[in-house]
Specification:
Elements: H1 2-15, H2 18-25, H3 29-43, E1 48-50, E2 55-57, H4 59-85, E3 91-98, H5 99-104, H6 106-116, E4 120-127, H7 129-137, E5 143-147, E6 155-170, E7 190-194, H8 199-211, E8 217-221, H9 224-232, E9 238-241, H10 242-251, E10 254-257, E11 264-273, H11 280-290, H12 294-298
Parallel strand pairs: 3-4, 3-5, 7-8
Antiparallel strand pairs: 1-2, 5-11, 6-9, 6-10, 6-11
Helix pairs in contact: 1-2, 1-3, 1-4, 2-3
């Protein structure tokens, strides 16, 4: 089908690599090459300059790429309208989310959606905020949820819900004896941090810099779960979303250090590529997320 060949061509052009395109499309490299050769034979023109490291569009390839994007978008719209005639939500959605959202908020939303629309194939990728932004920008993901916002000109950013961040400490930490902690007491403490690229790390770095807080020593983990477990084990204090530590706070495994006169809050945001098309499944999924009562989305 010509649409399949155009989809392969567009992916190769955007990835600039046959193997990478094959991975995204679940095709072998020979399969990708066959689609490209068939297109070149049909059009009577060379579409790609090939080299061992990457491929580049020829002049003819550049023309086809622009029109292929439009053709694929129109095809997607036609497919969506036909599905709407049948009153049946089908298709697939590839969703990306940063760790806090992907591990503590999204699963419940997906379970509810899957129960209502069982014929939709849902795929989820979890990574840190920078990884999700990069994947949405390169069209590897249909939609992404990140901590904070991004200024990427290729992406649309829509605030989804508020998130409260808190300082947590081991239950036996000296500061845990205080009902409220003066901000100055956070100075020269041992901190457990997320890795660079994490939205939580960006927020905590900004907070510490603005408050003039320096750490006595720090340990870095590449997941919020790792940070939480390290705090519970007595390694140090950390800044985490309240979503992540609700159970541990309730059980007393870790304690919240309430900072006097400070309430730390950020946005969880939804991101999409500005030029991406929207399937019926994705349209319905987004509608379901944003039609829930605001009190439900912000609690």
């Amino acid at each position: 089908m010509i649409v399949d060949a155009l989809r392969v061509f567009v992916t190769v052009a955007e990835q600039r690599h046959f193997s990478k395109a094959g991975v995204l499309l679940n095709l072998s490299q020979p399969g990708v090459s066959l689609h490209i050769r068939n297109l070149e034979h049909e059009l009577g023109a060379k579409l790609l300059h090939r080299s061992p490291k990457q491929v580049r569009l020829t002049e003819a390839g550049d023309i086809l790429y622009k029109h292929a994007k439009q053709i694929l978008a129109h095809y997607q719209e036609a497919s969506q309208e036909i599905q709407m005639l049948q009153d049946e939500v089908t298709g697939s959605i590839h969703i990306g989310a940063s760790f806090t959202i992907g591990e503590y908020i999204l699963p419940g939303k997906l379970a509810e959606f899957a129960g209502q629309f069982p014929q939709v194939d849902l795929q989820v990728t979890i990574g840190n905020t920078e990884e999700i932004i990069a994947a949405v920008r390169s069209n590897q993901l249909d939609i992404g949820f990140i901590e904070g916002e991004t200024q990427d000109a290729e992406l649309s950013v829509i605030p989804y819900m508020k998130d409260e961040l808190i300082i947590v400490a081991p239950s036996n930490h000296p500061l845990s004896e205080n009902v409220v902690v003066e901000q100055e007491l956070l100075q020269n403490q041992i901190w457990v941090l997320r890795e660079h690229g994490s939205g939580t790390r960006a927020f905590s770095d900004h907070f510490m810099q603005a408050a003039g807080i320096s750490s006595k020593r720090s340990y870095v983990f590449n997941s919020s779960q790792g940070v939480k477990e390290a705090v519970a084990a007595g390694l140090g204090i950390a800044m985490l979303s309240r979503w992540i530590v609700r159970k541990e706070l309730a059980s007393g495994e870790i304690l919240e250090l309430r900072i006097r006169h400070r309430h730390l809050e950020r946005n969880f945001s939804m991101i999409r590529h500005k030029e991406s098309s929207s399937s019926m499944a994705l349209t319905v999924f987004i509608q379901k997320l944003f039609t829930q009562p605001s009190i439900e989305r912000n609690k």
